[in-house]
Design goal:
The complex is a heterodimer of chains A (268) and B (242).
Chain A: H1 3-23, H2 25-46, H3 64-94, H4 96-101, H5 107-133, H6 142-169, H7 176-189, H8 197-203, H9 205-213, H10 215-227, H11 233-253, H12 260-263
Chain B: E1 5-14, E2 17-27, E3 32-36, H1 43-50, E4 58-63, E5 66-67, H2 72-77, E6 79-82, H3 94-104, H4 109-122, H5 138-150, E7 156-160, H6 168-185, E8 188-193, E9 203-208, E10 211-217, H7 218-224, H8 230-239
Parallel strand pairs in B: 3-8, 3-9, 6-7, 7-8
Antiparallel strand pairs in B: 1-2, 1-4, 4-5, 9-10
Helix pairs in contact in B: 3-4, 3-5, 4-5, 7-8
The chains are: A mainly alpha (268), B alpha/beta (242).
């Protein structure tokens, strides 16, 4: 098979994800409303409670809204990754996953395409959020809007791959509430998305370590630095490493001989 | 002549439960072969192995002489599948579903567009191509799935209980249409069912509790079982102690 056929296959998978996104307006709106609620209500309420000292990449004191904006972008991507994962489980239950799996292209490529499709959707959502956030005076430097693109792609890959891994373990749609409680909320709250980690360190050293080791913290920091046209090499390294590990685990999870496919029985 | 599908010594287990035990049969090019068995006989597991949804650990599966394990991509490229459960995306239109399938086979849209129109025309659904598949009846969805399975011009068509849940008219249409394809295009078909009337005057493979209990031309199976008809033969074969 030539590169052209691979490109068409990937284009088809990304196109389908885009169509599904357009059709599911509720999903699109909730993805935008969720971070805006945080920005408009939570941040407004907490701006006087949580003082933020000058920390990199900011050069001056910043309002709380400005501080949490990168974390909210990462949240959009986290929810999007989980949403893609949810749709994988849904597809599997509804049978449309089989259409993908019997494509003659290698399975790793099909999964990678599926992953990139989710990333494309999450990047568009992140930019729409940034456009709306501008009205809340979240105004990063113009170059930051460009510099954040590779960061969004990388963090989208990591969080999307994590979603794929989870979808290979979650057997039924009903079990997804557990994923919300045990993955999304802990990842989001035990990170630097809502509060700077020096504040966490003041209250609990253990929790500080948990936040430091949480890859979502790295995704948030990578986006934060990129948005202000700076590079945080440690975050980039952590996010890249985690993305590779999660993707490898997803490929194993969807291998017909090893993962859930091998464990599940067929209904005759 | 190289068989379109060759299955030899195929066994499969889920944990300690053996669902397929030493299965072996062939489907010749241009032939309509019916895989007949009651519910729970192992038909869907066999389809999952032949389409590589599950990994075959024991035995051999070859499509047009190419070993599935060594070259799954080549085997899948020559195969069209209609699964028991509908696999259409209900939120997308008929045409979008077919375009997605064409892309999954690496087809350029300039190539797939006329083929989509031709296949939909053949199953009488061309005018419904812009409708969402959710708005189609069960029989129409099945026809869309058949059109989709044939889009990339496969030489082997696998259909897992395609008539399940369909009314008489839709069933007759599907059966007639696929039999024509065998004759006209030389397409090899493996058709799984538990309905005896779909197995008349064809090659049949009878599966019971994961084992093949009879195979050959339906007339020969009837004769060998000393039965009066296929229904009688089927019942006798299912009654024989394992």
């Amino acid at each position: 098979m030539s590169i052209a056929t691979y490109t068409r296959c990937m284009g088809g998978i990304v196109g389908r994800e885009g169509l599904r996104w357009v059709h599911q307006r509720g999903r699109f709106i909730s993805a935008l409303v969720r971070p805006l609620v945080w920005l408009a209500i939570f941040a407004a309420g907490f701006r006087f409670v949580l003082g933020v000292s000058i920390i990199a990449p900011y050069e001056t004191y910043v309002p709380y809204e400005v501080y949490i904006a990168p974390g909210l972008i990462a949240m959009i991507q986290l929810f999007n990754g989980m949403q893609s994962s949810l749709s994988m489980v849904y597809d599997r239950e509804m049978g449309s996953m089989k259409t993908l799996m019997i494509s003659p292209f290698p399975r790793w490529f099909l999964l990678l395409s599926k992953l990139l499709a989710g990333v494309a959707v999450s990047v568009v959502q992140a930019y729409i959020f940034l456009a709306i956030a501008w009205f809340w005076e979240i105004e990063p430097p113009p170059l930051g809007y460009l510099a954040v693109l590779p960061a969004l792609i990388l963090s989208g890959l990591m969080l999307g791959a994590l979603g794929l891994v989870l979808s290979s373990f979650v057997k039924q749609l009903e079990n997804f509430a557990g994923v919300m409680n045990f993955v999304i909320f802990p990842m989001f709250f035990a990170s630097s998305a809502l509060y700077p980690l020096w504040r966490v360190k003041e209250s609990s050293l253990f929790l500080w370590w948990v936040c430091q080791l949480n890859p979502f913290t790295s995704a948030t920091e990578m986006i934060r630095f990129a948005l202000y046209d700076q590079i945080d090499p440690v975050s980039i390294a952590v996010v890249t490493g985690c993305a590779i590990v999660f993707m490898a685990a997803a490929v194993i999870g969807y291998d017909p001989g090893r993962g859930f496919m091998a464990r599940r029985g067929a209904a005759d | 002549m190289t068989p379109a599908l060759e299955v030899a010594g195929l066994s499969h287990r889920f944990g300690k439960r053996t669902v397929l035990d030493d299965i072996g049969f062939t489907v010749s090019p241009g032939s309509f072969t019916v895989l007949l068995g009651p519910n729970g006989a192992g038909k869907t597991t066999l389809f999952a192995l032949v389409t590589r949804l599950y990994h075959a650990t024991q035995g051999r599966i070859a499509v047009f002489g190419r070993d599935f394990r060594a070259d799954p991509q080549a085997a899948l490229a020559r195969m069209g599948v209609v699964f028991q459960q509908s696999t259409l995306d209900l939120d997308l239109t008929v045409e979008q579903n077919l375009r997605y399938h064409a892309a999954l086979h690496g087809m350029a849209s300039s190539v797939s567009r006329p083929l989509i129109a031709a296949e939909l025309e053949r199953v009488g659904l061309l005018e419904r191509r812009h409708d969402r598949t959710r708005d189609l009846s069960g029989g129409q969805r099945r026809r869309v799935e058949l059109a989709r399975a044939l889009l990339h011009k496969p030489a082997l068509l696998l259909m897992d209980e395609p008539t399940a849940g369909l009314d008489f008219e839709s069933r007759a249409f599907l059966l007639r249409h696929v039999r024509h394809l065998c004759a006209d295009r030389g397409l090899a078909v493996l058709w799984a069912t538990h309905l005896i009337e779909e197995a008349d005057e064809t090659d049949i493979v009878i599966l019971r509790a994961g084992r093949i209990v009879a195979q050959g031309l339906s007339q020969d199976v009837v004769t060998n079982a000393g039965a009066t008809g296929l229904q009688d033969a089927f019942e006798r074969l299912l009654r024989v102690p394992a």
